[in-house]
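Quick entry, no commentary yet.
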Amino acid sequence: MLTVETRHAVHEEHAKGMDTSELRRHFLFENVFKEGEIRLVYTHYDRFVVGGAVPAGSSLVLDAVAETKTASFLDRREMGIVNIGDTGTVTAGGESYLLNRGDVLYLGMGSGAVRFDGAGRFYITSCPAHKKFPSKLIMPSTSKEVQLGESDTSNKRVINQFIHPTVMESCQLILGYTQLLDGSVWNTIPAHIHDRRMEAYLYWGMDEESRVVHLMGEPHETRHLIIGNEQGVVSPPWSIHAGAGIGSYTFIWAMAGDNIDYTDMDFIDPKDMK
C-alpha cells in the first residue's frame, strides 16, 4: 500500500502567524512508519520527498508515484535510504542490498522499482537528479565521522556523513546522521540557516516517553515543535534548525538544493536569536 501527502512551501511571513496546530500540520511529519505500507510526504521545498517503508516481514514495492508524473519514481530522481530497524533487504536496479540498523543505501537516478523486504524500518529521502551516479551501500564503519561540540556546552556529538562529497558522489542529495553523546542534549548549536538549500530531520533512537524541542523559524522570530521518536521536520531554507532533547537521541539530516557543501552555513549568534 502506498500513500502520498503533499506539502506546499510556506513563506516566512505566513509562518509568523501560525499557531501550534498549523506549525505541526505544515512542518512536522509523523506516522510515516506503518507496518505493511509505504508512506511518503512530497514537499515543494526543492521537490524533496521523505517517508517510510515497513515491510514487516513481507515485500513492499515503490515504483510509480502519481505526483512525479514519471513511469517510475526514480526516473528523474535519486534516493537515500536509512534502515532504523532490524535487518532488511532493498532491491533495485537488479541488485539486492542487505541493510543492518544504521546502514545507508544510495540509489542513483534510473534505478527502477525499489523493493523492500524483511524486518527493516526504512526511512526514505529523495530529490530530483540530473545525472546518474552508481548506487552504493554505506555502513557506519565506511562513513566519514566528525566529532563536534563540548561537554561543558551540552552539545558533544558525533556526526556520520554518508551521502556526502567526502564519501561518494551524488547530484544534490546530502545525508547523514548525528548522535548526541551521554550528558549532551543540544544539537546543531550554534543555530544556522542556509538559504541555498532545504533540510529535513528525522529523530529516532528515542524512548517512547522522550521528546525533542525542535527550534525553527527566522532567527529573530523563532518557533518550536515538540517531537517524539520517528517523527521529523521539513525545514525551509529561511528557518533555523536546532533543538534539545530528553535522554539520548539521534537525528538523520538530509538536504537538497543549489549547494552540496556541508559547511556552507550562515551561523546565528545565540544573542541575536529571539
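second:
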Amino acid sequence: MNNESMVAEFILLGLSSVPEMDAALFSVFLIMYLICMTGNLAIIIIACVDPALNTPMYFLLANLSFLDVVCTTSTIPNMLVNFFSESKVISFQGCVVQMFVFTAAMDTEFLLLTLMSLDRYLAICNPLRYKSIMSKQACICMSAVVWSFGLCSSTYHTSSTFRLSFCASNKINHFFCEIPQILALSCSDTHINELVLIVTDVILGVVCFVLIFMSYVFIIIAVLKIRSVEGKKKAFSTCASHLTVVVLFYGTLIFAYFRPSSGNSSNTDKIIAVLYTIVIPMLNPLLYSLRNKEVKESIKKVIFRQNHINH
C-alpha cells in the first residue's frame, strides 16, 4: 500500500517509440480516419434521405455505421494529437470517458451484427412474414435493447475498473485506454474484473457467433433450394457484405484473444487494436457500397440531386 498513489493522469506511449515515424504515421491515420468518417456518414445520410432504403436492413446498417463513427472517434483523434505531443498525457476523466465510449461501441457491435444476421435470415427464409416481424417499431425496439445492453455492459466494466487502486506507474503501453492495459497498472486484486471480462467476452463473442453461424446455415440451405441461378445470386448478394464484415470483425478479435502470448505481445496488441479501431470501420462502408447495387444507386441519386440543386 505504500507504493500506491492517486493517479490524476495517464501517459499513452502510443504506437511507436521512434519519433521519426510520427509524421508518416500521422499522415496515414489521418487519411484513414477521413475515409472512415466520409464513408460511414455517407451511409447514414443516404439511409435517412432515400425512401428506397427505408427498410430494416438499411436501418440496421445505419446503426452499424454510427457505431463505427463512435468507435473510431473515441480513439483515433486523440492518437493523432499525441503524435505531435511531447507529454502524450490523457487525464483520468478523459481515460474513463474514452474507455466507456469505446467499450460500449464494441459490445453493441457484437449484438448488432447478430441482429443483422437475423434480419437476413427472416428476409430469405421467411419472406412472407418478414415485414410483419421486422416492422419499423420492432426494429427500433430491438436496436434500443442492443444499445442498452452495450451501454450497461460498458458502465459496469468502466466503473469496476476505475474503482481499483493504481500503482505509481501511470504509463499505458497503448494508444488509447483499453480495459486490459488499465488493469495491468492496478495494485488491487483484478481477478474478479478479469473473470467478468472473460464471461462478457464469451457471452458476446461465442453466443453471438453461434447465432450468426446458425442463421447463415439456414440461409445457405434456403438459397440452395432456389432453382434459378439469378435468384441464388440475388439472395447471396444481400448477405455477402454482412458476412464479409462478420468474418473481418470476428477473425480479428479471435486472433486477438486466443493467440498464444509472446515477448512482443504489446506490439501485437497495438497492431490488432488498429485493425478493429480504424481499419475495419473504414472498410465497412466500402464493402457495403461496392457490393450493393442499391447503395451505389442511392449514392448516385443523392449526388445527382445535389448537383441539380447547385445548378
